[in-house]
């Protein structure tokens, strides 16, 4: 399991979907997800990506005029990952 991951947050769903399309066309792994609660309690869509791709993604966002709110690095809280605990104890 990763210790951390990065996300882009957006002002609109349209911007999130456009970002996903561009990054997939450039073969950059991306996954749309709800905004992590560590970032905001409001609902919305974020794009998860490998942190090592951060600079490349920011360059593409500028090149393709992609609007985003912010970039965040999210630390996985292994203590509160109830699903992983459930999987390991149910084997």
From TrEMBL:
Residues 5-72 form the Putative Se/S carrier protein-like domain. It comes from Natronincola peptidivorans. This is Putative Se/S carrier protein-like domain-containing protein. InterPro entries: Se/S_carrier-like.
């Amino acid at each position: 399991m990763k210790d951390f991951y990065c996300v882009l947050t957006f002002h609109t769903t349209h911007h999130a979907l456009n970002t996903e399309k561009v990054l997939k066309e450039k073969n950059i792994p991306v996954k749309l997800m709800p905004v992590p609660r560590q970032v905001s309690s409001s609902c919305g869509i974020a794009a998860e990506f490998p942190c090592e791709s951060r600079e490349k993604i920011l360059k593409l966002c500028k090149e393709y005029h992609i609007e985003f709110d912010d970039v965040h690095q999210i630390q996985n809280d292994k203590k509160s990952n109830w699903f992983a605990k459930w999987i390991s104890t149910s084997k």
